[in-house]
Specification:
Elements (H helix, E strand, L loop, with lengths): L1 H34 L22 H11 L4 E6 L2 E7 L4 H12 L6 E7 L3 E6 L3 H10 L18 E4 L16 E4 L13 E8 L1 H8 L14 E7 L2
Antiparallel strand pairs: 1-2, 1-8, 2-7, 3-4, 3-8, 4-6, 5-6, 5-7
Amino acid sequence: MRFLLVLLLGLTIFNCEDKQSPKQTESAQQIDSISKKPKEPKKEGPKPEFPILTDANAMEFFLEYEKTNKENKVRITTDFGAIDILLYDKTKFHRANFIYLTKREYFNNTQFYRVVKDFVIQGGSSDDYNIAKRRRKIGKYLLPPDTKRGYIHKRGVISMPSSEIENAYKMASPFQFFIVMNRKKATHLDGEYTAFGEVISGMDVVEKINSVKTDEGEWPLQNVYIRKVEIIQ
């Protein structure tokens, strides 16, 4: 009798497991089917119009850029008035760089952040976070000097300072520039920095900016903004 009860109990358990297994199998197949569902490819956004510039690609980029962007006159508008600049064609990489940054509107709302009485006014930078963000979008690169074109640092010349990072080859910081006030005090710049243009109108504005009061670090006590830089004919 005991043997018969055990046999019946075993058959009951076996029948229950057998009835449940199709559901379990079906459920497992559904999970497996979900896990193997093909992923949709990610949609790529629009490609940027310009590459992020680096030391590795900047020169090649400007070599091509200058061929189709021949503009050579710009206007720097400040709170003190406008300064018109003629960029030299012979210093083609520096001219192309300045035109490129002008078209990218990089210089807008930067500052003349360094003023040295009777020597130079230096601009193109700012401690504004938005300017730093704008610079990152353009890239991080330096330009080699181009000092053998016969240009000297006379009064009114626009030139490019070397990078703040010490470098033996005077690689230039492409986002900054300075305008010379006094030839006698700037002769030592010849052969060291690249003169790539000159003021053709607005030297009186340069003089006004050069007369502002500064702190011990040669920063103007009141900000001297470059409201915009634009290409002119």
